[in-house]
Amino acid sequence: MPRFYCPAPLVIGELLTLPAGAARHVQVLRLQPGDSITLFNGNPAFAGSAGEFSAAITQMGRSEVQVRIGEHQAVEREAIRAVHLALSMPANERMDWLVEKATELGVASIQPLMSERSVLRLNAERAAKKVAHWQSIAVSACEQCGGNRVPLVHEVTGFSAWVEEGKQTADTAAGGSFLLTLRPGTRGLREAVAALGTSPAVTFLSGPEGGLSSAEEDRALACGFTPVTLGPRVLRAETAALCALAALLV
Known about the structure:
This protein has helices spanning 20-28, 94-105, 124-145, 159-164, 189-194, 214-222, 237-249, and strands spanning 3-5, 15-17, 36-40, 52-60, 65-73, 82-88, 109-114, 152-153, 157-158, 176-180, 187-188, 201-206, 226-229. With 250 residues, the protein is α/β, with parallel strands linked by helices. The protein has 2 domains: 3-73, CATH 2.40.240.20; 82-249, SPOUT methyltransferase, trefoil knot domain (Alpha/beta knot, 3-Layer(aba) Sandwich). Strands 6, 7, 8, 9, 10, 11, 12 and 13 form an 8-stranded parallel beta sheet that branches. A 5-stranded mixed beta sheet has the order 1-3-4-5-2. Helix 2 links the parallel strand 6 (82-88) and strand 7.
């Protein structure tokens, strides 16, 4: 059954006009009145509407689609521990691919960063458009993979500002913060995370092509990040981030 993100309170029995994005998708699929779909709102703040709902299409217009909300399923497919990914953005389409796959793996949020060696450089206008684009990719990935919580893609921020102003603690006040590095003597990621016990949240920091500079790593360590490694091989920026997520979430 097709799944659609609908960021609004979902109430059994009520008629609802789908948001523009979901409506276009329904029309592209050529669904008709009477067809069934699944809706989720991706926001636990909507009381009683976590999980997902069945819905029946009642009306198809030129640009609007109306549905009636049906049965509620209190199903959740989220990881026990929330993992927040902060990374210096890889170039070209690699960031798009990373956002999609990170969402499929169950990331809780994504913080795009600009660091010394970042290939991708964005002015304020382009950065805002990119974040909107990446957020839409996250929504589509949630619709596809069965996730009911859409990860938040934060505004693009400079590495130094993010680390020094303590922004990394916003989502993970009760958790741990880890820096991926190839420094000698660094503990393995799983070993370091196991030491956290039942900590509900983790922040994972990963560098761009070429990695973070020594000065940036030093700054992250001074701000409380724990150095961890994925092993002796040098992985591409997007591969390393996804490998770490898989180790933490699966």
